[in-house]
Write a structure and sequence with these properties.
The chain has 123 residues and is of the alpha+beta class. The protein contains two helices and ten strands; from the N terminus they run βαββββββαβββ. The strands form three sheets. The protein has a four-stranded mixed β-sheet with strand order 1-4-3-2, with helices on one face. It has a four-stranded mixed β-sheet with strand order 7-10-9-8, covered by helices on one side. It has a two-stranded antiparallel ribbon with strand order 5-6.
């Protein structure tokens, strides 16, 4: 079996999201399928960015919102300098929620402009 993994991220504003993920996190544009769906890439990983309006049905009876929210699945971005990466994330509208630095590794827990969590990690 030949399996390929990709990730989908729902956002309120596609254009703003593509600017954030390409400029703040180093992703590259791959293809734009529709006005509401674009694919960016980082290494071998395709990230499908999909514009979904606030209030539309997400799953079951839950409706979409873009306040900060917890999810058991998130992306980790490997960086060489967590402090510098945090500055860039904030410049493009992301939030830094916590940071931890040690000799072995550094980590920052962050959120994109739409409340989707991710981490910046230096190992």
């Amino acid at each position: 079996m030949n399996t390929q993994v990709s990730v989908s991220i729902d956002v309120e504003n596609l254009e703003q999201a593509v600017v954030f993920y390409t400029n703040a996190l180093g992703c590259k544009h791959k293809v734009k399928y529709t006005k509401q769906w674009e694919v960016i890439t980082l290494g071998e990983l395709d990230i499908h960015i999909q514009e979904k309006k606030v209030g539309t049905t997400a799953a079951g009876t839950e409706v979409r919102h873009y306040d900060r929210h917890w999810t058991p699945v998130h992306l980790d971005f490997g960086v060489t300098d967590v402090r510098q990466a945090c500055d860039i994330v904030e410049k493009y509208g992301g939030r830094i929620e916590s940071q931890s630095f040690s000799d072995g590794a550094d980590i920052a827990v962050c959120a994109d402009p739409f409340g989707n969590g991710f981490c910046l990690i230096r190992e």
